[in-house]
Amino acid sequence: MAWPMNVRIGLYQVISRMDLTESLKEFRCLHQGAKAGTLGPPDLATYRAARDKLARQILTAQHLALPPGKRQRRSLRVARALLLELEFEDGTVRATTLQLSSGGLAALLASAPQIGEVVKLSLGIPGGQPLQADARVVAVKEHLGNAMTSFQFLGLGEAEAERLEKFVFDAVLEYFGGA
């Protein structure tokens, strides 16, 4: 995950390096237990609270680095290339994700879909079956002759959202020194 330097600087302005190191160390242990399914209810609640706190810290740092007039994200996104299959009304398209969050994803497509269009997608997440979901096209921007397309997941179940969150935080931990 390659965050711009201004985001990394902002992150260190929000939380000191020592706090970050200690928070990540504690979170890493909880995260591994959550992935393994070994956390009991109290530890699972602690894990989710720690995950939410870390996400807020990173989102706050990203907000500090935003140009004036830009809207702050509600979900933590990571840059990850995953195989993606999209079923549009006029056919199936294969693509690779550019960004991913528990709320949606972005991918570069050869042609621009209509904003508001609903698609079925299959997302290849390492370590399990592909995630099957419905998604709505929420933004399209031209990018080097292609269409940078953002999708919002629709009706994603709790288990699927949790699976995505764990994948996102694997990427965060990898970025900060190993998952």
Structure report:
The protein has 2 domains: 5-74, no CATH class; 78-157, Thrombin, subunit H, CATH 2.40.10.220. By secondary structure, the chain is α+β, with helices and mostly antiparallel strands. The mean pLDDT is 85. The protein has 4 helices and 7 strands. The protein is globular, with a radius of gyration of 17 Å. Helix 1 (5-14) crosses helix 3 and helix 2 packs across helix 3 (41-64). Strand 6 (131-143) and strand 7 (146-154) form a beta hairpin. The protein starts with a helix and ends with a helix. A 6-stranded antiparallel β-barrel has the order 2-3-4-7-6-5.
Share of helical residues: 40-55%
CATH topology of the largest domain: Thrombin, subunit H
Structural class: alpha+beta
As a whole number of angstroms, the C-alpha radius of gyration is 17 Å
CATH architecture of the largest domain: Beta Barrel
Main attributes of the structure:
179 residues; alpha+beta; Thrombin, subunit H; 2 domains; six-stranded antiparallel β-barrel; 4 helices
Summarize, please.
This protein is an alpha+beta fold.
Break the fold down into its secondary structure elements and pairings:
Elements: H1 5-14, H2 17-36, H3 41-64, E1 78-79, E2 83-88, E3 91-100, E4 104-109, E5 118-123, E6 131-143, E7 146-154, H4 158-175
Antiparallel strand pairs: 1-3, 2-3, 2-5, 3-4, 4-7, 5-6, 6-7
Helix pairs in contact: 1-3, 2-3, 2-4
